[in-house]
Amino acid sequence: MSTPDYAHIPPQPPTPMEKFFAWVRRLGLARPTDRVLGGVAAATARRLGIDAWLMRLILIVLVIFFGLSVWFYIAAWIALPDERTGKIPLEEWIRPSGR
Asked: What is the rounded average pLDDT of the residues 43-63?
């Protein structure tokens, strides 16, 4: 009796969530180690080439005067990878434990 040859099984295509996380990583935004709160402002500032404190001020103005929600900041925090580890909090939370 021979064993089955699994080398001929085609790889599974990426899931929509895997595509999303790959896209997020390609954005070039990563929460740096020198963050004050969640690192969203510092990551955005680095990507735009401006000072992190200026970006923090811009975010505060957007929250106060234009109603940018704190939920937006939280969503960005859980969707952006950590600079040191490359891990995305949302991906870690929803990933099956066996992977």
From this structure: 90
Question: What are the residues facing 82 on neighbouring strands?
Answer: 31
Q: Which residue has the tokens 């080439």?
A: 49
Q: Encode burial over 15-30: b for 16+ CB neighbours within 10 A, e otherwise.
A: eeeeeebeebeeeebb
| pLDDT band for position 7 (cuts 50, 70, 90) | low
Torsion angle, alpha carbons of 59, 64, 70, 72, to 10: -60
pLDDT in the model for residue 95? 79
Are 79 and 23 within 8 A, CB to CB? no
SS3 (DSSP) at 95: coil
pLDDT at 2: 64
pTM for this one?
0.70
Nearest to 52, CA basis, from 69, 35, 28: 35
